[in-house]
């Protein structure tokens, strides 16, 4: 079989160190979606969320689907949205904590003996141990035919500052302090919190042939990030799912005037997973976002204008960062 779009997620990360809870509702739901069993998929949701006066929902790079009618539409159109006849779920990493679950998986889409391997973060808000209130799917837009390069913020930020690293622990906290060190990324600090076999990547479309060990790439990667983080753009995390080994963070951007004028940046949603090794240092960093792809957005096809999008999570300048005003 020809593999047209290749993912390294399963090849690099799958193994006994990443057990999958196969009877979890988020796993069973995605299996039902892949085999086009709409009634089974619907059985994991109720039309309204348990506590919020909102419909259940699935938020994806190609649209938001609300209520049971939306879940049906999502399920029935899932494989076709990727131009495929069939879809198969390949679970790779499973993180469950804090009333949420994150399934990192490849979906293998097949049509006419051609396969596309699409790596996805699948985040579930649990209603009960066996049912779901919401699913949020993250994957790079280039894996989805016709998808937009604009992923509007899923969450409305309560305030326009980076997340407080003190809600994080260990190497993940150290990483975020290094990432948001004023006036730019503290590359040495980030490198010191990474183990010497730390793996970076898995979700970018160029990662299909990534080697298992990318530790040597980390300094250069974060040096490039230091050209604009945190002066131009920073991340405010909106959810934290941390089981003690892996911390998964859903975040939205905060963008300064410098970020808009120098980098063409706008606020979008993204996600990252930070995995700790037995030595307490990071053994993997996996990020899914559209950073640097703003030039590909077709604003004449969006529900909002560029001017409207620029007003979301905008600040004149970054209000603070670690390494300033005595935060360390």
Defining key terms:
alpha/beta, 6-stranded mixed sheet, 22% helix, 328 residues, 7-stranded mixed sheet, 9 helices, 13 strands, globular, 32% strand
Topology (elements, then pairings):
Layout: E1 2-5, H1 9-13, H2 25-34, H3 38-42, E2 57-60, E3 63-66, H4 67-81, E4 86-97, E5 100-111, E6 114-128, E7 131-138, H5 170-179, H6 187-192, E8 194-200, H7 218-225, E9 233-242, E10 246-256, H8 257-263, E11 269-276, E12 282-288, H9 306-310, E13 314-315
Parallel strand pairs: 1-6, 2-7, 8-12, 10-13
Antiparallel strand pairs: 2-3, 4-5, 5-6, 6-7, 9-10, 10-11, 11-12
Describe, in plain words, how this protein is organized in 3D.
With 328 residues, the protein is of the alpha/beta class. Helix content is 22%, strand content 32%. The protein has helices spanning 9-13, 25-34, 38-42, 67-81, 170-179, 187-192, 218-225, 257-263, 306-310; strands at 2-5, 57-60, 63-66, 86-97, 100-111, 114-128, 131-138, 194-200, 233-242, 246-256, 269-276, 282-288, 314-315. The strands form two sheets. Strands 1, 2, 3, 4, 5, 6 and 7 form a seven-stranded mixed beta sheet that branches. Strands 8, 9, 10, 11, 12 and 13 form a six-stranded mixed beta sheet that branches. The relative contact order is 0.14. The model has no long low-confidence stretch (mean pLDDT 93).
